[in-house]
Amino acid sequence: MPTRGASAALPPLPRTCTCTQTPGTMVPGYEFNASDADVVLVSNDAEPFEFRVHKCVLAVASPFFCTMFSLSQPHDPGSTGSAAPSLPRIPVSEPKRVIEALLQFVYPIPDPAISTLEEVATMLGAALKYEFECPVASLRKLLVSPHFLQSQPVRVFAIACRFDLDDEAKTASRHTLRANVLDCPLSDDLKHISAYSYHRLLDLHRRRARAAQELIVYAPDRVKCALCTGGGARAVSRPEVVEGVRGPGEGAPRGHADDGRHF
User: Fold this and answer.
1) Cα 39 to the chain's mean position, in Å?
2) What is the C-alpha to C-alpha distance for residues 53 and 1, in angstroms, rounded to an integer?
3) How far apart are CA 254 and CA 116, in angstroms?
4) Distance between CA atoms of residues 55 and 39, nearest Å
5) pLDDT tens-place string over residues 20-50
6) What's the gap between Cα 94 and its chain centre?
7) Taxonomically, which superkingdom (predicted)?
8) Assign residue 255 a region: left if phi > 0, alpha if psi is -120 to 50, beta otherwise?
9) What is the pTM of this model?
């Protein structure tokens, strides 16, 4: 993997605390206060937190920081009576918890424990902003994990559209077919997507419903209402009908839970 101009070897990472995590928390396995740090990231908090980190690590992980460090970096003057100047300080607009989690992705230590879509969206925004490629890849996979797709597919779709993640948006859109989009709880994530994206989702549902109706009308021997009696057709639930009308190569996962409505 190219180092994008950061030729120095990665420094050793002495661990200064135990590495234990519980779901939904971001507990670091490494305290970002290295004695050999050569740059300081300053969080945006009421009491700003200083992360003493290494340029070479940030430059390898991010083209954004690689370009920044290739430019001339002024040093703050040292304090009165200090023989050495202080390290360059970079204020960031994110709070401590976000920068800490990003650095956990970047440094060779365990990734942070992220358990909510709010955390995924926040982390994705920051990772994309600073062009942290590996964290972005990890967060994209997490966004379309089975847990989120099954429990909150519309929110996953909205977050994917917000950050122009086309593959994830397509995956999420197929998972929304087992629910009525207009019946889903209103989410703030929808504020960040365009009317075009939302219209495409509604149009997908309309086309799938029309295809299911055509299947019932033109192939009555293939499907029958599960509440009816008599005849030799097999009773089929709504998710099975939706699965049956998908076109070749669309690859939507099977096994959706029955939502209680039947054709």
Assistant:
1) 28
2) 21
3) 24
4) 6
5) 443 334 444 578 988 899 999 999 999 999 9
6) 17
7) Eukaryota
8) left
9) 0.67
Mind giving me the DSSP string for the chain?
---TT--SPPPP----S-----TT----SS-SB-TT--EEEE--SSSPPEEEE-HHHHHHH-HHHHHHHHS--PPPPPPTT-SSPPPPEEE-SS-HHHHHHHHHHHTTSPPP---SHHHHHHHHHHHHHTT-HHHHHHHHHHHTSHHHHHH-HHHHHHHHHHTT-HHHHHHHHHHGGGS-GGGSPP-GGGGGS-HHHHHHHHHHHHHHHHHHHHHHHH-TTT-B-TT--SSSPPB-BHHHHHHHTPPTT----S-PPP-S-B-
CA 241 to chain CA centroid, Å, is 31
Q: Are 95 and 24 in contact (CB under 8 A)?
A: no
d(CA 37, CA 251): 48
Tokens standing for 185?
A: 């709880």
Residue pair 25/113 in contact by the 8 Å Cβ criterion: yes
For residue 25, the one-letter residue type is T
Q: Dihedral sign, CA of 166, 168, 172, 174?
A: positive
- The first and second tokens of residue 94, run together, are 């994110």
User: Which long-range contacts does 116-123 make (Cβ < 8 Å, 24+ apart)?
Assistant: 116/24, 117/143, 117/148, 117/152, 117/155, 117/156, 117/159, 117/189, 120/148, 120/159, 121/159, 121/162, 121/189, 122/98, 123/98
User: What are the boundaries of each domain within the chain?
Assistant: 147-244
Tell me the range of 7-11, 74-78, 202-206, 226-230 where mean pLDDT is highest.
202-206
